[in-house]
Design a protein that fits this description.
- The protein is mainly alpha-helical and 67 residues long.
- The chain has a single domain, classed as 434 Repressor (Amino-terminal Domain) (Orthogonal Bundle), CATH 1.10.260.
- It is built from four helices and two strands; from the N terminus they run βααααβ.
């Protein structure tokens, strides 16, 4: 199972949903959905924008587990 760690990484770097939305140029509702539903699929372009805003690799935003 793949789970996004966007919320955790963003909070570690001092971002909330609003500030991450502005910095990444990703719609607030999309950021909110990612924070609330980390198992839901997200497009690669969205992950690229978020990773650039947070100054991390896309791989740092993804958690893979066997569950």
């Amino acid at each position: 199972m793949v789970r996004l760690k966007v919320k955790e990484v963003a909070e570690e770097k001092g971002y909330n949903m609003s500030s991450l939305s502005r910095k990444s140029d990703v719609h607030f509702n999309t950021i909110k959905r990612i924070f609330k539903e980390p198992n839901r699929p997200v497009g690669i372009e969205t992950l690229e924008k978020i990773s650039k805003a947070l100054d991390v690799k896309i791989a740092d935003l993804i958690d893979e587990s066997d569950e």
